[in-house]
Write a structure and sequence with these properties.
Two copies of one chain form a homodimer.
Chain A lengths: L12 H10 L9 E2 L5 E2 L8 E2 H18 L3 H4 L5 H12 L7 E4 L2 H15 L5 E5 L4 H13 L5 E5 L5 H4 L4 E7 L11 H10 L3 E5 L18 E4 L13 E5 L1 H4 L38 H17 L1 H23 L5 E3 L10 E5 L3 H10 L2 E2 L1 E3 L3 E5 L7 H16 L16
Parallel strand pairs in A: 2-13, 5-6, 5-7, 7-8, 8-9
Antiparallel strand pairs in A: 1-3, 4-10, 9-10, 11-12, 12-15, 14-15
Chain lengths: ~425, ~425
């Protein structure tokens, strides 16, 4: 259970408002359209709407699609979007600009890099991952192994502590999510990559909860492959296409079976035989989703403007204060902390557990405090330092305290499950 | 070479304008935003912008994303979009509403159905297709075979006449595009499906150039699988997600390796083990692309309003008149007809070949007549009966005649290749 806060200084709303007033990132909140009556702490699920995204959508629809029609592939640069956005994301994850491209979904991209890794390690038959990894990653790994025949398989370890021991001679690729979706635990990318390489395995990193939120240095960590989504901390919109990273040293040897025409060396020759494009382009598949990519650029640009070091500094301060506020205000109300206490090992979220977790989150959302719920019993509060305020932490804790103290969450309708939780 | 027209009645602009005046579909053109200075005959590559698509985008961005934020998954029905759009497309391709779902790209969906088909025919090792099929279909088939190991392969036949002979005991799945992208040739779906079934093979149909343009009766033809895009005759926008069809009788036995969480039976249980959803939902993969799906609905609705029989009747009249006009106006100017003369065997396009094809198309586009170019030497004119007019056929032929007679296309800059042709 959460223990009472012991620090000398009691936090109050005025102290948090003063932090907002001094926050160098505060003006960037104005670049987003956010409802006035909401405390939004679910940017780790779906980021907020950049105002410029509306302008871009309007331009792409009216001028580029409506007036330009098919000419816009060349005239409006539609065909360059996967590369242009990829180069921008590369700057956020410590990659070379020719190592990242935007295309398809995170799941589809993960399938590509797992198959590429399995092909690069033909004598090895296992994908190794964590049982607590985001489920779609595990499902995709199952599918990738199954299609190669019975001797390929996915092996799961029960906790991060067991990862290293599971990397054996049969492990072709280690599949890890850098920041865990449920408890915010952040893995040591450099150390785990080094250990996998020492055993001859490759590593594929899922950066969905990292990109735009925490420092990532793919090249410095000698990472092999990575994927990630654009609709969480990158604010790319519902549901922007995802990105894929392949280290330059592996690209020319990487074969992936979703070999659609946009990954062809010369797609407009219309040759009947596939020949993979040079470089990262071979991870493209079908025709790129122009509208959603164009819209996603607005959010990515705001992250670039804020810079990762400034975002990370604010994220740590926000999550630390939120944890302190929970201790100060909600001690004894049945919440149990989940995930790392050390901010250096935590992503940009705070999770707590309560047996009534689902109903509590429904009650919070009813009162304008939007976090989300994850099984089992976990309330998840994401801080997106581009637009989250220090006073949001205060207001969220105040509402949570009230919901717990008054037992408002016990109203039966809060237990009714929504289709999407 | 195109021979001169022999029919008694000479066609003129007034005759064509009269057809427009009497056209029951003419009012639907007003539902699109189209530039005044353009004759658009490339709806078979990218359909035109429905005005309602702009309203939808504005609503999804401002109200649903901006104000609703993550709540819109439930409150705005985002999570139902793949099914809702799938059910609408099902009505256009003769399928049951629980047999079609919208997700991912055509290429990714093709990969899924090919893998499902290979799994359903475990003793068979070949995918059979046509060398003249759209290249991405062949590239995906190559990838699908290669990932299963060396004994799997893609076999290509040189013409539609050789398809039947190639269906042998080793053929797991026949991969065919219903209407050929280059010459508009339409295959006999019922007959070829029946022949494949007789030999124990399954058939996967690509409907990218069919959906919204020609009658398709998947259930009546006993089709097994189909895929198609939403951005051509369905006017879904650049580049809307694609659809996938699996016959009800095969769904519960269909396994596909892009087994992302949205294809799980209970995705929000966050179980570490994949269990495929019942029915067509197992062909979903990652989180659905909400914005582009929502926008795509506008174009699909207009096709439903027009109805396929009315669209097909107008399409045949448009393409027949265009062919007649070419014969009347352009005989002796070096154009060679390509594809079927019989409208019952032709999709909603007309193709002609000329050694200067690429430059001629560039010159046409410069003069506001937008068709497109496909190797080798092929000028492709697509008629989208939702918004194409009879006078468009006249105006396009008039400009083409002028470009050929004056040899305007021989200007050197028309030979410079664009990135996207």
């Amino acid at each position: 259970m959460l223990s009472a806060r012991t620090s000398a200084t009691r936090l109050d709303l005025a102290a948090l408002a003063a932090l907002d007033a001094a926050d160098p990132l505060a003006p960037l909140r104005g670049a987003f359209h956010l409802p006035d009556d909401v405390v939004y702490l679910d940017g780790n699920s779906l980021g907020a709407l950049p105002k410029r995204a509306e302008q871009i959508a309007s331009r792409v629809l009216r001028q580029e699609w409506g007036d330009g029609l098919v000419r816009s592939w060349n005239d409006a640069g539609w065909h360059r979007l996967p590369w242009r956005l990829g180069a921008k994301i590369a700057r956020l994850v410590g990659a070379g600009e020719d190592e990242v491209i935007v295309t398809d979904s995170t799941s589809a991209n993960l399938y590509k890099v797992l198959q590429a890794a399995l092909s690069l390690r033909p004598g090895r038959r296992s994908i190794v991952s964590e049982r607590e990894n985001f489920p779609t990653d595990l499902y995709i790994a199952e599918g990738a192994a199954r299609v190669r025949g019975e001797r390929h398989r996915l092996r799961l370890v029960d906790s991060p502590a067991h990862i290293e021991g599971a990397i054996d001679e049969d492990c072709a690729v280690l599949l890890l999510t850098h920041v865990n979706y449920r408890d915010g635990n952040m893995l040591d990318m450099a150390a785990l990559t080094e250990r996998a390489h020492r055993k001859g395995a490759l590593v594929a990193w899922d950066l969905s909860h990292s990109a735009g939120a925490v420092p990532v240095e793919l090249v410095a960590c000698e990472a092999d492959f990575a994927v990630g989504c654009c609709y969480k901390y990158l604010n790319g919109g519902p549901v922007a296409p995802a990105f894929v990273f392949a280290a330059r040293r592996l690209q020319e040897r990487s074969e992936q079976p979703l070999s659609g025409w946009w990954g062809h060396a010369t797609p407009f020759d219309f040759s009947p035989t596939f020949r993979a494009a040079d470089g990262i382009a071979r991870f493209l598949c079908g025709t790129p989703p122009v509208l959603s990519m164009a819209v996603a650029e607005a959010g990515i640009d705001l992250v670039l403007e804020a810079t990762i070091p400034r975002l990370r500094a604010k994220s740590i301060q926000l999550t630390e204060l939120f944890i302190e506020l929970l201790a100060q205000e909600c001690a004894g109300l049945g919440l149990e902390p989940v995930g790392p206490r050390d901010p250096q090992r935590r992503g940009s979220q705070v999770s707590v557990r309560h047996p009534g977790g689902y109903a509590i989150m429904r009650a919070l959302i009813d009162r304008g405090v939007i976090g989300d719920y994850r099984e089992p019993g976990i309330l998840r509060f994401g801080f997106a330092p581009l637009y989250s305020r220090y006073i949001d932490a205060w207001n969220a804790v105040a509402v949570l305290k009230d919901v717990l103290q008054t037992r408002a969450w016990e109203q039966p309708h809060y237990r009714e499950r929504h289709a999407v939780t």
